[in-house]
Automatic annotation (TrEMBL):
Keywords assigned: Coiled coil, Metal-binding, Nucleus
Any GO BP: DNA-templated transcription
InterPro entries registered for this protein in UniProt: Sec_Metabolite_Reg, XnlR_reg_dom, Zn2-C6_fun-type_DNA-bd_sf, Zn2Cys6_DnaBD
Source organism phylogeny: Eukaryota, Fungi, Dikarya, Basidiomycota, Agaricomycotina
Residue ranges that the Swiss-Prot or TrEMBL entry lists as coiled coil: 74-101
Record-given protein name: Transcription factor
Organism: Ganoderma sinense ZZ0214-1
Predominant subcellular localization, coarse grouping: nucleus
Length: 834
């Protein structure tokens, strides 16, 4: 056996032995397994190559070769291979960009075989199959890297004023917000008095909610403004009827038993308990929302604002910052919704206040642990469900407010441990009941929407493949069963309100899903229209073009149905008009960029339908009246492109509409209306300064933002003497007070205040010509751009100037650079001349 031991110590194959020593082995000592299987002590099937080596990707080494035992060389070699792959992909991308046609080195037949295959000493099919199964060819790797590189860098608009103020609107901001972002516009309002409130009461409502109100006269005035029991029940019915699709309702038993009866039962003047104070604030907000959608009242009536002010006073009797209850949080949440629904001015100050108020509500919700399930503290099911319903209302409101402004949400799902409650049954006034499954669906979709915002619209740009994946998740999200039309004969207790409810719910479901599609794909639509003007559907982003066109069609179809069935309600809701304006811009973009494609004529038909909707609603809807001039000019531009009256000039690119789509822009506003400051005077002029301070329109404390309204300032005379004091406070008009909770504009009037509300007449006011954000560009012919200074000199009032950078359109480049890809859908809307 000794000779056998000496032979076992001979060098093995792959471990340093040469080929001659392997050939000199005796015939009886041929190994039955391959060298690699012997090294790893694996079972070998004695085939060449064996199954074990084939699975491990080393079929070329079988049967005599083996891999090194240490891991160092293997890791180093893998790192070098990855580095070389990246260099090859970069070189191929550069070669493709510089080549007019397809370079011979970029053809598929030259990249089919990897370098390892060409340099292999073994040409067996086993090795080829093993290599192809574990490695990617340079061409395939470059294709994958190309998709990863073409990402969008659109972070929105940042405006910087000459007084240091700044505002940010992200890439998903609503169109009307971005239109007025670079300039401080005066609200398109009229002077509507608050007949039931005095100046003292409005002054108290102006203060922050964490300041305690101990004015007994104000308390008596607040209680005197409570309506009768009959009127209160009528407004509660309106609140419940519209809560089926506008806001989440409260249980009818809770409102009638624990709020209405609790407050209207004697003694009516006893409001010392915190619960009763917050319940009163909640009841006032129910009245405010009901008055806002009371068809017997004019739109945006002063009574609704009065109830909003009374609710703020009631909350200040027990500041929710220190005494936080579910009723207080629910009242503040309704306040935020009221601010958004009552916002009809072009500057949209109420919507901004809504976003701030929602953030405050989120903070209070965190302070009492609404984001954690009540089961953690062994609360009963009723209390746990009540807390859960309030939290998911806050979550939904915060998610959509943040999405509408393009700002990050305040709630992080990673810290949420609260299940979505099940639908509940709400009793109707006729004795029937209806389910809140629609509201539960909105909470579930808001949860998905939060994930989409984090993945697609965060600071780190995502890839197109990720966008398609998110789009599929939204499309596959099931619709609520309540919006499906009933099959068979209608139930005997069916009414017209049921049809209105189903139609409005279907409208909001369509808006929530399809507007998300629009924001996901509109940047890729602009790139497809820019690269492929003949047929954008053949572009690599052609899927985005078709998705956007179908989403626009669905939004318009749902809005048209809602206008036919519920014209009065839709006239007072801002959201569908806002998204219809975005759809009109998208359609006009398609028409003007690809007028010869098959999408142009159908898009023109849909654009005409949108314009007809706005024209019909001009006299009944303030929102439609504010934007009708934009629709008219878009329609004119689209028809001109179809008839080829105005030749398309690709060199004229307006950065303003590039900003409207959310592209990263920094705007510097100059020549704004400044605010007055007190002059520097001598010590002996103190008496004059003191008297002047009492009636100053530009006082910083009363007007913290420094914004001044021209049409009000013209009526003020600094040299006029102050009005004589009166014994009783006058009926309060609102322009004397800085509505810090409602408006950024405050004016002083010694004879009373005037609340700036929407006019009864919905016609175009003289101030609307200052809101014309596309005037100087849509009137261009032949692509000649008017000088900016000349356009500004023609304006009657000082307009802000926007300093932007317009990226040049590269020619001859097959693959767009990252600088080109960061343009959103508005980069191509710029070709409209807007």
């Amino acid at each position: 056996m000794a000779p056998l031991r000496s032979n076992d110590k001979e060098p093995q194959a792959g471990n340093g032995g040469d080929s001659e020593s392997r050939q000199r082995r005796k015939p009886g000592r041929v190994p039955v397994s391959c060298a690699e299987c012997r090294r790893l002590k694996l079972r070998c099937d004695r085939q060449v190559p064996c199954e074990s080596c084939t699975k491990r990707g080393c079929a070329a080494l079988c049967p005599d070769g083996s891999l090194p035992t240490t891991k160092g060389p293997k890791v180093k070699a893998a790192a070098e291979v990855e580095e070389l792959k990246e260099k090859v992909a970069s070189l191929e991308a550069a070669l493709r960009a510089l080549s007019q046609g397809t370079h011979p080195l970029l053809r598929a037949d030259t990249n089919d075989q990897s370098p390892a295959d060409s340099s292999s000493p073994s040409g067996s099919s086993g090795r080829a199959s093993g290599s192809d199964g574990n490695e990617t060819s340079p061409r395939d790797q470059e294709t994958l890297n190309e998709d990863e590189e073409e990402v969008l860098d659109a972070f929105g608009t940042l405006t910087l004023g000459n007084r240091g103020e700044a505002r940010f609107f992200g890439q998903t901001s609503r169109t009307e917000y971005l239109i007025h972002a670079p300039e401080r516009l005066h609200p398109f309002v009229n002077k509507v008095a608050l007949p039931r409130l005095s100046s003292v009461t409005v002054n108290e409502a102006m203060k922050e909610l964490d300041a305690f109100c101990d004015n007994e006269a104000v308390g008596e005035e607040v209680l005197s403004c409570m309506p009768s029991m009959e009127e209160a029940l009528r407004m509660c019915d309106i609140f419940f009827e519209n809560s089926k699709f506008l806001w989440h309702p409260l249980p009818r038993e809770y409102v009638y038993t624990e709020i209405v009866s609790f407050l209207y039962q004697p003694p009516i003047g006893e409001y010392c308990h915190v619960t009763k104070k917050h319940a009163l604030a909640l009841l006032f907000m129910i009245f405010a929302l009901a008055t806002l959608f009371d068809m017997k009242m004019p739109p945006y009536s002063a009574e609704a604002m009065e109830y909003y002010i009374l609710a703020r006073i009631a909350l200040r009797w027990a500041p929710p910052t220190y005494d936080t209850t579910l009723a207080a949080i629910q009242a503040m949440l309704y306040m935020a919704q009221y601010l958004e629904m009552s916002d009809c001015e072009p500057a949209h100050t109420g919507s901004h206040k809504c976003w701030v108020q929602t953030r405050h509500v989120c903070t209070l919700g965190f302070s009492i642990g609404l984001h954690v399930s009540g089961c953690k503290w062994r609360l009963d099911e009723v209390a746990t469900a009540k807390r859960g319903r309030v939290f998911w209302q806050i979550f939904t409101q915060d998610t959509w407010n943040s999405f509408g402004f393009g700002r990050p949400p305040n709630i992080n799902l990673a810290f949420v441990d609260c299940d979505i409650p099940k639908p509940e049954q709400i009793m109707a006034s006729n004795g029937t009941s209806w389910s809140t499954e629609y509201h539960v669906w909105t909470w579930q979709f808001a949860k998905l929407m939060h994930t989409v915002m984090t993945a697609a619209f965060s600071a780190k740009s995502t890839t197109y493949s990720r966008i398609i994946e998110l789009d599929k998740r939204i499309r596959d999200f099931p619709d609520p069963p309540c919006i499906q039309p009933p099959t068979g004969p209608p139930p005997p207790n069916a009414s017209a309100s049921d049809n209105i409810t189903r139609t409005m719910q279907a409208l909001f479901v369509t808006l929530m899903k399809d507007t998300t599609h629009l924001n996901l794909h509109r940047s890729y639509l602009s790139q497809a229209l820019k690269d492929c003007s003949e047929d954008p559907l053949r572009h690599k982003y052609g899927a985005s073009v078709m998705i956007i066109y179908r989403s626009v069609w669905r939004i318009l179809n749902a809005f048209q149905s809602a206008r036919r069935i519920a014209p009065d309600i839709t006239a007072r809701i801002t959201l569908p008009w806002s998204h219809s304006l975005s759809c009109a811009i998208l359609l006009c973009l398609i028409i003007t960029r690809v007028p010869t494609s098959g999408l142009a004529n159908p898009a023109l038909i849909e654009l005409d339908k949108i314009c007809e909707l706005f024209e019909e609603a001009t006299n009944t809807s303030q929102i439609a009246s504010n934007n009708i001039h934009v629709l008219r000019k878009l329609r004119k531009q689209a028809h001109a492109a179809i008839s080829r009256v105005i030749a398309e000039d690709a060199a004229v690119v307006c950065a303003e509409l590039d900003r409207l789509g959310g592209r990263t822009q920094l705007l510097h506003t100059v020549n704004e209306l400044g605010f007055g400051c007190y002059p520097i005077v001598r010590r002996d002029d103190r008496t004059f300064v003191s008297r002047q301070k009492e009636r100053s329109v530009f006082e910083t404390q009363a007007n913290p933002n420094g914004y001044v309204q021209g049409f009000v300032a013209e009526d003020q005379h600094m040299d006029d003497p102050p009005a004589p004091p009166v014994a009783n406070p006058p009926a309060y008009d609102a322009s004397e007070i800085d509505f810090d909770f409602m408006n950024d504009v405050a004016q002083h009037n010694p004879q009373g205040c005037v609340l700036q509300m929407v006019p009864v007449d919905f016609g175009q006011g003289p101030n609307m010509q200052n809101v014309d954000w596309i005037q100087s560009f849509l009137e261009m012919t032949g692509g000649a751009q008017q000088p900016q200074l000349q356009s500004q000199s023609q304006s009657q009032t000082t307009q802000p100037q926007v300093q932007v950078q317009v990226a040049a359109d590269p020619q001859g480049a097959t693959v767009p650079t990252p600088a080109e890809m960061d343009a959103t859908w508005q980069a191509l809307v710029a070709q409209l001349g807007i």
